[in-house]
């Protein structure tokens, strides 16, 4: 019973982190802005860091099942 919330949170975090990394990579590949009115280097770096953090957090939730 207690593993249900961990699986749900892990899935949500992992999907969001993977999608953010995929979207950031696509923007960098096509030289499109990651965020409007923000430095391209800063927005790419922050999106990559947060994507990786959410992906790691999702994996960590799965280890708690």
Task: Give a written overview of the molecule.
There is one protein chain. By secondary structure, this protein is mainly alpha-helical. Helices cover 78% and strands 0% of the residues. It is elongated and about 45 Å long. The N and C termini lie close together (10 Å).
Strand fraction band? Answer: under 5%
Low-confidence segments: none
* Rg result: 14 Å
**Averaging pLDDT over every residue, what do you get?**
94
> SS-based structural class?
mainly alpha
Q: Termini separation (Å)?
A: 10 Å
Number of distinct beta strands: 0
Q: Quick one: overall form?
A: elongated
Spell the H/E element sequence: HH
Helix count, DSSP H or I runs of 4 or more residues: 2
Largest sheet: none
Helix content: over 70%
Short précis:
The protein has 65 residues and is mainly α. It has helices at 3-29, 40-63. It is built from 2 helices and no strands.
What descriptors fit this protein?
single chain; mainly alpha; 2 helices; 78% helix; elongated
Per-chain topology:
Blueprint lengths: L2 H27 L10 H24 L2
Helix pairs in contact: 1-2
């Amino acid at each position: 019973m207690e593993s249900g919330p961990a699986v749900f949170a892990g899935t949500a975090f992992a999907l969001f982190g993977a999608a953010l990394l995929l979207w950031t990579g696509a923007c960098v590949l096509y030289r499109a802005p990651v965020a409007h009115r923000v430095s391209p280097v800063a927005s790419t770096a922050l999106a990559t860091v947060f994507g990786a953090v959410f992906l790691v957090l999702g994996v960590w939730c799965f280890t708690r099942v």
